[in-house]
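Example 5.3 — Glyoxylase, beta-lactamase superfamily II
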Amino acid sequence: MDNNMIRQLEEGLYTFPIPLPNNPLRELNGYLIVGENEAVMIDTGFAMDPCREAVYGALESLGISPEKLTVVLTHLHSDHTGLAGELHEKGARIIAGKTESWWIHNIRSDEVTAGFQESITRFGLEQDGIHYYDNPGYKYASQEILELETVEEGDRIEIGSFSLEVVDLPGHTPGLIGLYCRERGCLFGSDHILDKITPNIGYWTEGFDSLGVYLQMLEKARSMKLKRVYSAHRNVVEDPERRIGELVGHHDHRLKEVLEIVGQGHKTVREIAARMHWDLRAKDWEAFPKAQKWFACSEAMAHLEYLHLRGRLKRTLVEGVYHYASA
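Solution (predicted structure tokens):
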């Protein structure tokens, strides 16, 4: 890796880009916190050669061997966990939250595969020829069975001059964690709060109100009175209060958009998602890549379920497919 790609953000804190080929996110912000004889890295990138080159190049440039490395996996998505298995095999310690560790262990299991495949049916996506195997979270996940150490909210990781407190921030995934440095007023927030782009808040399982939980966690982050958020993608968030307000406003607009579409008559998740506005270079729904159809339907479903759980929409199951209508 070109040493010029590594930037020092604070004393002992470095960032470097991890490319995400053929992905609209483009890059993952790699973070390394370096102590006297050890280091902490937050997330890893995909199990792909461009990600390997970036991660191992950064470690080499800063003189860090895997045996001296602790990797914190903030959540299960493969752009955050893909290299964890091989880093562990090289001697790194791997940490994740308890909820997310279950998903990381089981993301390729028959149980999870069947659950997501059922969601494809419920969304009405089978007509697009979509399978769970098309999901990047499956395709680029770590191939190894990870030996994870688990942490809970309030646990601390001490590294150099940083005291990192584990905070639960579910919503984007069922068990996403962040690392809060109270003394510095900063949060390593992963995909919880992003600048310029909005985190995907999608449907996971029956009974998990992902959007409702996410909005609660935004208020939790607001209560921290943060000075900055070190996000997983795009820029450092220098005005967290402003950005949290924008994210709440975005989802308020989305909910109104969904209500307006459903108000035009009974529709499936797929039909609703196809009518929603997406910042994607595709002329129509048919031109959407398969993975993006999945993400669009999952996000639409999260908003539909938020409204359904609050009595504003009715949900019916017709031949295995969910239909929504005004309550």
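Remark. Residues 3-259 form a domain with the Metallo-beta-lactamase; Chain A fold (CATH 3.60.15.10).
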